Every structure is written in structure tokens, then in C-alpha cells.
């Protein structure tokens, strides 16, 4: 069984004038409350042809010239980032007609342009449309439309102004300030809600590439999952797993999936545990610049996570004093459960959401934890009555400014 864990980004990336920062974001107001639930058949479980996928999606079909005008001819200074799929450009469209607009007017968008030599990229382009053209949830990025013209393959998303979680955790540039404890917990909860929805009977989707670079942040640090190029329909009937070629990102993929190619929702739970550990520690899942014993975050941190005295050796020094030891241990314990070697011992994402919500509620009752008085859930819809999700249609975009997200972070980056 083949593995596709690295290097591909180098071979498939379009030259974007030397830009190598990963795009992360879209902007805009949070979701509206006028959502109707979708049925469990929103994403058909049987394989569909390209024509069927494009015809059934509720997305706008853009012409290449429209997107060329919206991005000012894909100017180099419009590049937001690049990855295995290609380059992502910033652009503007009118919020009602969705036609190209002058810079600084209308809606800001992110336009992801496929490397024309990439067959795998085409499959991921189609997967994005298949899933994001059918599903809507406050914690999933919003896809506005696509372009299929001659050899051109493009995807159009709303722009996420705060970029990716990866940038905020690991970049030391002055533009990216370290996220506070409260904001990290807000992001963790939002990302968990997105995964929980994907795993629910409403969607039955396995994400397969959960990582910090695929979590995009809107203007209020609301988390949205991006990049559905590797997503798969979950098992149906009596099947316990999906057998597939091993693909993903080294350091995040569940060990049993890497070993067997058997994909389940618990594979995503493991990846969530890795990202949760990244948020606690401020360290990357894999960091070759660290001493050899510290290069693999999960292996290095595991012995410290269950000890009240040792946990602080793992915690990010930049957020020292912003949390209580009990909160740190509680989140560390959740990470331990998600990272269990045996999938059956891992919680499901609904349970993870509940644990993070309880932490939030406990902090609200105490009223004294966290830093700068930030509310981890401010501006975020509570999921106590279930999150909002529904079928999307083009009119949703034209009736007001779209919700925030970003072209999935150009992220078939599998390194």
C-alpha cells in the first residue's frame, strides 16, 4: 500500500515568485442563524462522476477571465501563499453579482489556482467541490465557487484575515502574536465542533488531514476547517473502516492508519490530539531543529502530560500565568485520551466537544482564569442545541457578506 506523506509539495508547487508562506484565512462576519438542517444524504456515499459533482454543487461557476480580473491578473503581490495544489491569490468580487470588483471594494476572496501539471491536484480540486459544495457548518470554510475552463482549475473562497493556527503558534514574526490560553481553547473548541459535525450522521465524512495549517481563523479567531482534498466518505453499513491509500501529514496521522490503511473517525481524533498538544506546547508535531529526543512531539511530551509537576515542562512559556494547573492538566488529559494507541480508547469528537465546553463553562463560572479577560467563546455560537448546518446555495453569498474562511490554505502540503 502506497504512502503519500511528503515531498509531493516540492514537485507540484507552482512557482509563486518565491512566496512560501501558507495562506490561512477568510474574513467576514460570523454565520447567520437562518440555517436549516441537511439530511444524512447530503454527501452521497456512492462515487459520482465529475459532471454529477459539479451539477449538484450549490456553487457559482466563474469564468477564468472573471477570476483573472478579480485578482488583478494574478499579480505577484496578490499571492497569499502556496502549496502542493498551487498558489492562492487575494481578490475582490461584488457581494451581490459576484463579479470582479475594484481592490478594497466588495468582498475579499481567496482564489486557489491549480498547478496545471498535477493530476492529483485535480482529484483534490474535485473533492473540495464535492464536500464543501454540499456541506455547511460554522466551523467549516466556505467555498463560494470554482472555475473549470480549458486546463484551468480554480477554487474561490472567502478570505480569512487571521490566517492559520499554524502561523500563530509557530511563526515568530511580529505580525503573528502568540495566542493567549483563552484563544487557544476557543480555537480548539471550534475545530472540535467542525470535526464532530463531519463525523456525525449528518455528514459521515472522515477529514484525514487535520493539522494546524488547515485550521483557519476569522476576524474573531473563530476556527474553520479547510482543505478537503483528502477527505473520504466514512464507512457504511456494517463496515468498521474505509480501506484507502495512506495519505496525510507526517506527525499527525494515526499509527494504525499508517500501518494498515484502515481509516476511521478515530483517525481524525488522534490528529486532533496532536494539534491540541501543539497548542499546549507551542511546538510542532515534527521539528527536526530540536534535539533528537524532542523532535517528535507526541513521543517527547507523553511522559509529562499526566503529572501535575511535570506538565509545565511541556507548556508554552509564552502563555505562562494565563491558566491554572488544573486547566492545563485537564486539557493534557484530553490530549492523552485522543492519542491513545488503541483507537477504541479514544473519545469520539462529540465527547471531545463536551469536555472542552465544560472547561469553558467552568472558567466562566470562576470568572478569574485566563488572560486579558478574553472570553474563549465570544462571538461563537454555542453548540449546546446543536450547530447550524445546511445545504449551501449561491444566493447565501449574494444576500450579504459571506462568512469567513480561506482557501483551504493551499494545503495539500503533506510535509
TrEMBL record:
Domain Protein kinase as annotated: residue spans: 74-359
GO MF annotations in UniProt: ATP binding; protein serine/threonine kinase activity
Subcellular location: Cell membrane
Keyword Cell membrane among UniProt keywords: yes
Alphabetic keyword roster: ATP-binding, Cell membrane, Kinase, Membrane, Nucleotide-binding, Plant defense, Serine/threonine-protein kinase, Transferase
Keyword set includes Transferase: yes
Top-rank lineage group of the source organism: Eukaryota
Bias (Low complexity): 25-49
GO CC annotations, alphabetized: plasma membrane
GO biological process: defense response
Region (Disordered) residue spans: 20-51, 359-415
EC number: 2.7.11.1
Residues at which ATP binds: 112
InterPro entries registered for this protein in UniProt: Kinase-like_dom_sf, Plant_Ser_Thr_Prot_Kinase, Prot_kinase_dom, Protein_kinase_ATP_BS, Ser-Thr/Tyr_kinase_cat_dom, Ser/Thr_kinase_AS
Top enzyme class: transferase
Family per similarity comment: Belongs to the protein kinase superfamily.
The protein's name in its UniProt record: non-specific serine/threonine protein kinase
Organism: Populus euphratica
Organism classification: Eukaryota, Viridiplantae, Streptophyta, Embryophyta, Tracheophyta
Gene: LOC105129765
Amino acid at each position: 500500500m502506497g504512502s503519500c506523506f511528503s515531498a509531493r509539495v516540492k514537485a507540484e508547487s507552482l512557482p509563486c515568485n518565491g512566496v512560501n508562506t501558507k495562506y490561512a484565512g477568510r474574513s467576514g462576519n460570523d454565520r447567520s442563524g437562518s440555517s436549516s438542517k441537511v439530511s444524512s444524504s447530503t454527501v452521497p456515499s456512492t462515487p459520482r462522476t465529475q459532471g454529477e459533482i459539479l451539477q449538484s454543487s450549490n456553487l457559482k461557476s466563474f469564468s477564468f477571465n472573471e477570476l483573472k480580473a478579480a485578482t488583478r491578473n494574478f499579480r505577484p503581490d496578490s499571492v497569499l501563499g502556496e502549496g502542493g495544489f498551487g498558489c492562492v491569490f487575494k481578490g475582490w468580487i461584488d457581494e451581490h453579482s459576484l463579479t470582479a470588483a475594484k481592490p478594497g471594494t466588495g468582498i475579499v476572496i481567496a482564489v486557489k489556482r491549480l498547478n496545471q501539471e498535477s493530476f492529483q491536484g485535480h482529484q483534490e480540486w474535485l473533492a473540495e467541490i464535492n464536500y464543501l459544495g454540499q456541506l455547511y457548518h460554522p466551523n467549516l470554510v466556505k467555498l463560494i465557487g470554482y472555475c473549470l475552463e480549458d486546463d484551468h482549475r480554480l477554487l474561490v473562497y472567502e478570505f480569512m484575515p487571521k490566517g492559520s493556527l499554524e502561523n500563530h503558534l509557530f511563526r515568530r514574526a511580529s505580525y503573528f502574536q502568540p495566542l493567549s490560553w483563552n484563544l487557544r481553547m476557543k480555537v480548539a473548541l471550534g475545530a472540535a465542533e467542525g470535526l464532530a459535525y463531519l463525523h456525525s450522521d449528518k455528514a459521515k465524512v472522515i477529514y484525514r488531514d487535520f493539522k494546524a495549517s488547515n485550521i483557519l481563523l476569522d476576524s474573531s479567531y473563530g476556527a474553520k476547517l479547510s482543505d478537503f482534498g483528502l477527505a473520504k466518505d466514512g464507512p457504511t453499513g456494517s463496515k468498521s473502516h474505509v480501506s484507502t491509500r495512506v495519505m496525510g501529514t507526517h506527525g499527525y496521522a494515526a499509527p494504525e492508519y499508517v500501518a494498515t490503511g484502515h481509516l476511521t473517525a478515530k483517525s481524525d481524533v488522534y490528529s486532533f490530539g496532536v494539534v491540541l498538544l501543539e497548542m499546549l506546547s507551542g511546538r510542532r508535531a515534527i521539528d527536526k531543529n530540536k534535539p533528537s529526543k524532542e523532535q517528535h512531539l507526541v513521543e517527547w511530551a507523553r511522559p509529562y502530560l499526566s503529572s501535575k509537576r511535570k506538565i509545565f515542562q511541556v507548556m508554552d512559556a509564552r502563555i505562562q500565568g494565563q491558566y491554572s494547573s488544573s486547566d492545563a492538566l485537564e486539557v493534557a488529559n484530553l490530549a492523552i485520551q485522543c492519542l491513545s494507541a488503541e483507537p477504541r480508547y479514544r473519545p469520539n469528537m462529540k465527547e471531545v466537544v463536551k469536555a472542552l465546553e465544560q472547561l469553558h463553562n467552568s472558567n466562566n463560572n470562576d470568572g478569574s482564569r485566563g488572560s486579558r479577560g478574553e472570553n474563549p467563546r465570544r462571538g461563537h455560537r454555542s453548540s449546546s442545541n446543536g450547530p447550524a448546518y445546511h445545504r449551501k446555495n449561491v444566493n447565501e453569498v449574494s444576500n450579504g457578506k459571506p462568512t469567513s474562511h480561506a482557501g483551504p490554505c493551499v494545503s495539500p502540503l503533506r510535509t
